[in-house]
Amino acid sequence: MSALAPPTPPAAPAGPTPNVPNQTGPVDTTQQETQATQPPGPAENVTSRGYYMSSEHQAAVDGMGIRDDDSFATRATGAASRVSDATKNTSGAHSFRSKTTVDIKRSYRAECIENAKRKAEEFADSLRSNNPNNLQGTPAFEGPATTAPGKYGEWGQRIRRPKGPSSTGGDATSRGHQASIRGYVNARPVRVRSQQRAAKWAARIAPSSIHNSYLHNNSTSASSASSNSPAPPVPPAAPTGIITDYFQRQQTSSTVGTSTPSKGRRRIPTIEELRDAGYKEQRGKKVDKSAMKRERFLLATKMVAAQNETRSAAARIKEQWTKGAVGYVPEVKDDRVCRFVFENYNSLSFWHSQHKIHHLNKLLRQFDADCALGVELQVQWDMADKNLRLDKLLMPGQQKRVAVGYNKHEAFNRSQHGGVSLATFDRLSQFVMESGSDPHGLGRWAWMKISSGSLVTIVVVAYLPCKSKAAATSVKQRRETVYNQQGRYFRSIGDVRCPRAIFVDHIGQQLAQWKQQGYQILLFADANSNVYDGILAVELQREEIRMVDVCEAALGHKSPNSHASGTLPITGVFATSDLAAQHVFQSSHGFGLGDHRVFVVDIDLAQLLGSEYSQLVRLPGRKLQAKRYRVRKAYNKSLRDNIRRHKLTEKYHQLYQSHQSMSPQEISQRINQLDREKTEVMKCAESKCKRKCAGKLPNSPKVSYWCKRLRLFDRIRKHKITPLKDPRNLHRSCKVLAKDCSDMEILQPNDYTLEEVEARIIAIKDQLELLKPITPELRFSYMNDKIDEAIEEGNTKKAKELSSMLEREALRGGYQEIKKTTNKGKGQKVFSIEQEGPDGTRSTISSKLDIERVAGQTIGERYRLAYSAPIMSHNKLLRDVGFSGDGPAVESILRGTYCYPDDMDPYTQLLMLEATVLFSSLGEQGIEDWVHSSDFQQFWLHACERTESSKSQLHFGHYMAGAHDTGITELHVASLNTIRETGVAPDRWRNSVTVLLEKVFGVRLITKLRAICLLEADFNWLNKLIFAHRLEVHCRLHGLTPPEQFAKSKSCCEEASLIKNLTTDGGRILHNSSAITSNDFDQCYDRGCAPISGLAARAHGVSQQSTQLMLQTMQSMDYFIKTGFGISEEPVFGGSPNLGSRLMGLGQGSGAAPGGMRNIVTLVDNAYKRLGHGMAATSSISGRIFLLAAIIYVDDTDLLHWAKFYGIEDEEFVGQVQEATTDWGMLVHATGGAVKPSKSFWYLLSWKFHKGKAQLKTKQELARFSINIPQSDGTTAIIPLEANDVTKKTLGVWGNPLNQPTVPLVKLKEKGLDWVDKLRVRPLERKLTWLSLTSQQYPALFYGLIARCMHHQMN
To answer: What is the pTM of this model?
Structure first.
């Protein structure tokens, strides 16, 4: 019998069923037992569900208004209508005020009571009038009546069963009683009841007088049932088993004059209880649980069957072995392997139906594929809609890189024969550096270059066409075959060879070229010939290529036939000797999309990329989105209420006024207490502002409809696996969802099994998969409807907010498409690092703890490099200046009254003297450090919310949302002013996250990684306000910034490049010897010496409180490391207030770093010029003298040198350049910094005259000269001399002293052609192409053109 079919009733006997004679005497027990074992006769009443009822039973059920195929809500509605109609014709029966819902419910309740009483009495009279002894002789079926009840009864009362065994069968009677009540009251389908059970049910729901009249036939109560009974009172016979025990208990109850059961048994429900139970069920709109259970069973059976089909790749492989499959891949893919899935699709055919796409995605999910390769797609991609491109169809929602190949010369129809595709997903797509296809545009192969920096692997998918079979195809079909397509193209260009031979020749040349470049190659090919001795196999065995089939080595034997009707292996996977397959699986025919076998190949990532891969740990999404009005409003309301309740603003004001009378420990304790309280209320407001709904699908009512169910059933599944201690919230969620969406059945968690829950999850995911292609349109339609509703309501603010949201979403999607097309390989999160040993050898570190340990040691050393500054070794000077520029002698140094020690470093003294000069030019005009509400709102209302910050998770969104509210702004401003005034930072500010990123893609050497410091958002903004914005305005107002400094507002790198080119042009015009020394700082932000940084800040007008707060917080910072494994649990390094343990530096990513570095460089530049270095140019028109010593942009420095007089000898001029370079290096060393030799070089323009014509000397003529730069350890390093025509990239601009535009223009041309090639590989729609051109390419192409002069040869 099928599991889905309803139960089949027992077969009826051949003859009629003997009836029990209507006798008044004793009944023959033998005859009763014989009748009890006989099956019933033909069904008099068969329900719509296939269950049997006797005539009397059916009459009683019909009298209650219960039908077998109706739900209770339907019955209640129908009964209420009937009661309402009846009361219209019956005077005095019921009084109705109006036809309201309450009146109908009350009428229905009264009708149910009267109907139950009347039908029960009539049924009892009919049974008694016929023969009461018939109760013993009713035929019964074998088997249990129903399953055991649950913990709670249908009317919500807890079932109390006897604790001990009963000799009279009381427990069995209780179960039978519950089965009867649940079966008849709720029309629950159970096995066929006999007349005996019908009588028991009628007796239980009737009044006590009916019980006594029916059971004992000597009732004295005035009931209609007893008065109308014509039969004389006959005591019932003593039945056996359950009925005997039941009758004995009823007789005992009658003898004692009560019908209340004993305490050990569950009492029989009364009419009122049944009525209340029915009314409660009707009020809760519960449906028929039996019907729901059958529907759930049918649905669960189908879904579990579908789930079993997709449970795991290994289970399907075992099934495939019996069908001819070979090989094996593990069920759970190891993170250290890369899995490729390759198949001949034999047409994707998604124009009218996407069943093949769904099947393909299903296979990719089963095998957890990293790369999908296919041939014979039969799609003309330039005729496909943007939503039907392969990157949209394959694995929606995942990050991917796709390369396709198709015939671009002919297009018979949109289902053009041939074509290849290659797609990488998520983790592997991060390593794709380049992709391409057949250069002839025939779609014969496609490839991707994959690399992590150490190794380069080319993955290729190719399709070798087979010859057309003339006898089996028509003329039109032969014309459209891949073989004839390629033949026509090559004949048009003069190549009349066989297309198969041409294919083998061309791909052989391409593979040999890649092999010669040192690349590894992995080739997936449908060769349409034997992969072991065919035409392609012979070509791959050439000495220049040497590629072998990896399947044979992994399987231990040769591959079987590839095509379902073929006999030869024509599909294979080939690789160079460096690659080997760990596992290979070749499916049986019919497993995939087409008529070929599916190939699944596992390759070790260490062989493929040169490194292993670990799963990226992502931070949880943010609930608070300050750009959304509704979310921001809810956040501000919650936070504002908590601020008022806890009086946070008043507490900060009180601390600000009374801090002078408190000890530093008390101030610190109070500051931390208020900061913790503020942090808690901000996080609380974020948790209540919205529900987190971060999905990969655009939100709309249709998508939300299924996502809510998916989240709920996922919670139920977790509850089934690990039960919750308090599941009330889960039960409440089920009720709420069932009420909100009544068209889909949602029951309580206890009503589901784990299999049913998992089956429903699979069904919901399949439904979401079907919705994915149309979710953008659903989102667009939903948002437009909301905008129209807001306009109709007159809420223009809401309409504008929704419109801007829709515009942002559209732009975000467009920019994402552009980035996928045009972006080149960028630095990834670090999963492994390389460490260089003393002997130059490199070792790879890949474990999380080891990476954190090594990174902590390396980065921690950077923050201590500034201890090499001379001031740090001079104890007296260090005590006078202070560790943060707050020592007792700082005021005297700034005012020029300090007496410098005789043994101090002269370059340090020069820096302090320049600080005195700067401070004296200011007078008493310092920088205001009071924080105003307008400052707070002006910045945060226009900040970028996506900026990452804050170890405490108080991200930018908190302050952006708070800037819209005056009360919240006042709280933040009060806290900042209090912290600044007291000079005590909260502990939260002393936690920082250092993110390790690759500067160059694939380079993971620990010394080459960029370490970005993420500070707390409010602390970082305070630094920006004082050390960036106000300091910049102050310096511009008082002329403190030297002209050599271009890292300032209203300036850019192009201006710096232009000035440098003009100086070299002036030297060439005058034929005066000149030189340019490029000296870049080494770890400039991390090597700022704190005493010098503090002194420089004070010299520029920054107050002592602000300087001390910033520097002391950075010196005692605890640094956490963030890699691809996530944020470290403990700080990997940090500082402390102790003198020997304080950290140096300003922090890469700190808002004070650019301004602080500019302050230090200003002192160095002024001291450098005071030593007499630099160039002096006189204007030929006005006679004005221009003094310029260098071109400085943060840490990039080009020192400009002009000869002191015309005709200077080279040796003397080089000595002048050496002296200036040494002074610059020593001044930098005095600040704790150093010049990096590997990034330094110099140009020398020296003139000679040949036949009266000035000529520049060549590099060979000047090779005897060299320049040294001093290092922090006391040694010197030689920097190379470059030829004057060698073009270098400085400040993002290509240039040389001769100002030749050839190389820069060639670079611009290469940049433009590279952009065009990327668009050809992955085309964009027209508007996105224009958007990419205007927003990306124009700025990139025009950058630096202002500094270029067009040569006449370039015209």
So the answer is: 0.63
